Amino acid sequence: MEEQLNTQPYEEQEIDLLELAGNLWRRRKFIIVSALVAMVIGLVVAFSIPREYSVTVTLSPESGKSSGGNLAGIAQSFGLGNLSAGSEADALNITLFPDILASDPFALELYGMTVTPEDGEPMPLNEYISEQRSPWWSVILGLPFKAMGWVRSLWADDEDENEDGTIDPFRLTEKESRRLEAIKESMSAVVDKKTGITTISVTMQDAVVSATVADSVVRKLQDYITAYRTKKAIEDCRYLEKLYNEYQEGYYEAQQNYASYMDANKGLYTRKSMVEVERLQNEMNQAYQVYNQVASQLQMAKAKIQEAKPVFAVVNPARVPVKPSAPRKLMILVCMIFIGVVCACAWILFGENLWKELRKKAAAPEAADNESETLNEKK
C-alpha cells in the first residue's frame, strides 16, 4: 500500500510531462514559425550593429621595491586618493593602470591626437569619435533627447570649442564631455596582480584607428608613469645643478682672486702678505671642496633618474586587426532563436490558458449585464 502511495506522484508527474510534450508537439508549427521570426529579428539586429575592432597590447612592468612616494602623486593628481608610501613600486603601477585610463587628464591627452581611418582623411580623435555609427534603434530612442537638447540650445549660450581646437579642462562643454566619455569607454585595462601582466584594450569601429590609438595609449601611459616615478629625482637634479653652477662660479672666483694676488705681490715677504695669501688659498680650497662635493651629488642624482625610470616590456604589441571583434552575429542569431523557441513554448504551456482565463473574467460582467437587460425587457 505504501509503495503504491509513493509511486503515485511520480506517475502523475510523468503523465503531466508527457502531456506537456504532446501539447508542444501538436503546436510544433507555431514553434517553428516563432523560431523563424526570431531568426529574422536576430539577423536584423546582428547586421544593424556596427562592426568594432579591438586591439590588445600586453605589458610586463619591471618588479622592484621603491618608496612609493613618487607614484603616490599619480593617485592624487587623478583624484584617486592617497596610497601608502611603503607599497611596492610594481604594485602601485598595477593598481593605477586602469584608473589612469579612466581619468579625464589621460583622455584629454588623446582628445586632439590625429588619426587616419582606413578609408578616410586624417582628423582629430574627438571628431572621429563623434562620427562613429550607432544602431538604428539607438537613433530612434535618442530622438526625444535630441529634441530636448535642440529646444534647450535655443535659450543656451553657444559653448562650442575654440577655433584652434583647444579645450578648457576645468570647464568642459556638454559636447566635449560626451566625446571625452566615449574616448574613456573605448579603453580598458585588465591587470593580473600576481604576475604583473597588464592587458590594455582599445575598441574602435575602424581597425587602423584602433591600432593607432592603442599604440598611443601604451606610449602615453609609459610616459605618465615615467614622469611621476622620476619627478622627485628630476627636481633634486635641477636643484643640484643650480648649486653646482653657483659653487663653480664661487670656486673660479676664489681661484682668480688667489692668482691675481700672487701675481701682484711676487716680491713681498711681509707677514701681512703671507697671511693674505694663506687666507685666499684657504678660501680657494674650501670652495673647491664644496664644489667637488656638489658635483659628486649631481652625478648621483642623474644616476637616480635613470634608476627610477620604470621598464615596460611590450609582450604583445599593437597591430591592425584583420577580423572584427563585434558583433558576434552567430551568437546573436543562436540566442534570438533560443529566446523565440522558449517564448513560444511558454505561450503554449502557460500563456494561452492564462489569456483565456483573463478573457473569461473580462467577459463575465458583460454577460451578466446582458442577462439582466434581457430579463428586464421580458418583464
User: Taking Cα atoms only, what radius of gyration do you get, to the nearest Å?
Assistant: 39 Å
Q: Total strand count, please?
A: 6
Number of domains: 3
- Give the helix level as a range of percent: 55-70%
Could you name the ranges where pLDDT drops below 50 across 5 or more consecutive residues? 1-5, 10-15, 64-92
Averaged pLDDT? 78
> Which fold name is given in CATH as the topology of the largest domain?
Bacterial polysaccharide co-polymerase-like
- The termini sit apart by 61 Å
Q: Quick one: biggest sheet?
A: 4 strands, antiparallel
Q: Which strands sit side by side, in order, in the main sheet?
A: 4-5-1-6
Q: Number of helical segments?
A: 13
Query: So what's the CATH class of the largest domain?
Result: Alpha Beta
